[in-house]
Amino acid sequence: MKILVSAGPTREYFDSVRFITNASSGRMGYAIAREAARAGHEVTLVSGPVALKAPPGVTLVPVTTAEQMADACKRAFRQADAAVMAAAVCDERPTDPARLKKPKRSGRQRVVLESTEDIAAALGRRKGRRLLIGFAMEDHDGLRHAEAKLRKKKCDLIVLNGLDSLGGNKAVVALFSSESGWSEPMAGTKTSIARLIVRRIEALAAGR
Fold first, then answer.
1. Which end of the chain is more exposed for a tag (fewer CB within 10 A), N or C?
2. What is the rounded distance in angstroms from the CA atom of residue 53 to the CA atom of residue 24?
3. Catalytic residue among 21, 22, 183, 191, which?
4. Which domains are seen in the chain, by residue range?
5. How far separated are the first and last CA of the chain, in Å rounded?
6. Among 16, 21, 10, residue whose Cα is nearest residue 98
7. What is d(CA 140, CA 174) in angstroms, rounded to the nearest whole number?
8. pLDDT tens digits, 87-140
């Protein structure tokens, strides 16, 4: 299969230096890309800024902002059989970023934000028979929120994880699909979890 994987955070700039981001390390997305390539699949990895090397045999497309990630994912998805949206894309960006670094000012500063594009939902609207795997990171009501995201984004499978997995090499996840319902929680290294996710993708593809 040709598999698209997104990974890492995005950066949304206030000016030429300062930006909004999050604590995503990209480790889960990179692990999925690596395990998919090891399984013989053709992998395109669209990655935000991370301190990780591209896995062997993977085509890396580096991006910085949510808009760049959306454009790169849409291009790669045209030729893909499946997409795994593991990136932690910023939900908002400053509406009027300054071209140059702003000088420090005292007192409160007002920043107006606007929503970034929901990349998984955009792919879901055009996926046809292709597979779409989403991720949900939640700190409360995780099962309900993840199920709602699966339906809204038209995902075939969604991976629920928590804040404890940020930045580390281990995670606890649960998988949900409309056909199979919820899996039991799975704990392990991100490599071992990535291997399970790749196998689940292969099973979903075989059932098409």
1. C
2. 15
3. 22
4. 2-94+112-206 (3.40.50.10300)
5. 13
6. 16
7. 14
8. 999 999 999 999 999 888 888 888 899 999 999 999 999 999 999 999 998 878
Determine if the pTM surpasses 0.90. Answer: yes
Alpha-carbon Rg for the chain in angstroms: 17
Q: How many CA atoms lie within 13 A of 107 on its CB side?
A: 1
SS3 labels along the chain:
CEEEEEECECCEECCCCCEECCCCCCHHHHHHHHHHHHCCCEEEEEECCCCCCCCCCEEEEECCCHHHHHHHHHHHHCCCCEEEECCECCCEEECCCCCCCCCCCCCCCCCCEEECCCHHHHHHCCCCCCEEEEEEECCCCHHHHHHHHHHHHCCCEEEEECHHHCCCCEEEEEEEECCCEECCCEEEEHHHHHHHHHHHHHHHHHCC
Active-site annotation holds for 22: yes
Structure tokens at 99: 């071209």
